[in-house]
Amino acid sequence: MMYKAVLVEDESIAMQKLERSLKGFEDKITIIDKAVNGIEAVKKINKLRPDLVFLDIQMPGLDGFQVLSKLDYLPLIVFTTAYDEHALRAFDLHTIDYLLKPISNRKLQKAIDKLERFQQNSQWQNMMQNLMRDMAKPAVPRLAVHISNRIIFINSDEIYYLHADNKYTEVHLFQKKYLISKTLTELEDELGAGFLRLHRSNLINQKYIGEVFKLSSRKWVVKLTDKEQTELPVSRDYRDKLY
């Protein structure tokens, strides 16, 4: 089978290298168009309906995952990226393969071999159904944490709780914490309904609430399911949110 492919890559040098590598597979893959950002990719893929897309993850406008969520249909996808931190998520989305830049001919051959195996059985149809299902799920909010010259993105489901510290907020994860320059009120809006404000100083991820108990008629405490079994106070003004 000959696959019609669209290449999506925002770096010109990386695009040229991918094109050169694919010339060695002209008997199997025909490049019908290219896109240099996520918005352009959505338009071209929906219009041309290729069999296969080589899709960069980090791009201006829309990233690779956002592109998938806006397609009218789902072609076969091979993700390309320079950052292996995205690998697990890419595989979880049931894509054909994941290629870490620089892309060697050996890696490309392996991806194409895998592509042909998918086409020969029902795996491809199952993969597309699973991908459509996952794309329909609401996205998990992510929190951007600035650390010196880096920005770390944290999925909200990794956060146990947040604690206000003057003009800053402590973000508590499983084995570490970060200090960010946002107020608890700002973060409450940003993180959404999965987090409960049970005290003016604390915002708690509901999925990690283990139990709530009363120490006295006026004092209530929530215990989390983290390793330390953190206990946090519950204010009277916020207590009715627990019922």
Describe this structure in words.
With 243 residues, the chain is an alpha/beta fold. It has two domains: 134 residues, Rossmann fold; 101 residues, Beta Barrel (OB fold (Dihydrolipoamide Acetyltransferase, E2P)). 29% of the residues lie in helices and 32% in strands. The protein contains seven helices and 15 strands. The N and C termini lie far apart (59 Å). The mean pLDDT is 82.
Key terms:
alpha/beta, Rossmann fold, 2 domains, five-stranded parallel β-sheet, 29% helix
Q: Can you lay out the helices and strands and say which pair or pack?
A:
Layout: E1 3-8, H1 12-22, E2 29-35, H2 38-48, E3 52-56, H3 64-69, E4 76-81, H4 87-92, E5 97-100, H5 105-119, H6 123-136, E6 142-147, E7 150-155, E8 161-165, E9 168-172, E10 177-180, H7 184-191, E11 195-199, E12 202-205, E13 209-214, E14 220-224, E15 231-234
Parallel strand pairs: 1-2, 1-3, 3-4, 4-5
Antiparallel strand pairs: 6-7, 8-9, 8-12, 9-10, 11-12, 13-14, 14-15
